[in-house]
């Protein structure tokens, strides 16, 4: 049993931990970024991790997913909502499973409806995060300009250090 002084010292250490927010979605890049982060920032420290880990998933709104459907889109709203819930549950299950396999159990998971760029920057503010981790899809300049890059947006707008994790291209 720990002495009161040890308990208090542990409480202070936990209170002083910085927050790391990791953006998660259903992409291979997101899963790779989370795995890389766990391997380099959490696993080496056993149960005394230097960061509090917050995983954030930006769930698209039903209206944004259906807006492309045009007239008659209202009939498919319930089906789209059900699909978005299933996808979100799968993303969370995958992320938690990866954390468990790396022995990282003290993880907070948040699902926030909205555009990933805004959701992640708002999560940084909400949690006073010192680091935001996002995966990189490796889009070229044209795709990035047309589709918009979450990592690029966050690098310019998040009020913390932004780490963009890219999978190395292995040349044969």
From TrEMBL:
SUPFAM superfamilies from the UniProt entry: Adenine nucleotide alpha hydrolases-like
Ranges where the UspA domain occurs: 20-166
Recorded superkingdom: Eukaryota
CDD domains linked: USP_At3g01520-like
Official protein name in the record: UspA domain-containing protein
Species of the source: Quercus lobata
């Amino acid at each position: 049993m720990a002495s009161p002084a040890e308990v208090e010292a542990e409480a202070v250490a936990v209170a002083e931990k910085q927050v790391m927010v990791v953006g998660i979605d259903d992409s291979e890049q997101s899963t790779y970024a989370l795995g890389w982060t766990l391997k380099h920032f959490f696993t080496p420290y056993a149960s005394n991790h230097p960061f509090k880990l917050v995983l954030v998933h930006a769930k698209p709104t039903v209206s944004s997913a259906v807006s492309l459907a045009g007239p008659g889109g209202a009939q498919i709203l319930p089906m789209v909502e059900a699909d978005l819930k299933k996808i979100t549950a799968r993303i969370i299950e995958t992320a938690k499973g990866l954390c468990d396999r790396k022995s990282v159990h003290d993880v907070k998971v948040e699902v926030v409806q909205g555009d990933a760029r805004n959701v992640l920057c708002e999560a940084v503010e909400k949690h006073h995060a010192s680091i935001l981790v996002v995966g990189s899809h490796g889009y070229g300049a044209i795709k990035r300009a047309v589709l918009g890059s979450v990592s690029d947006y966050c690098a310019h707008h998040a009020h913390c250090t932004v780490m963009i994790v890219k999978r190395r291209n292995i040349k044969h």
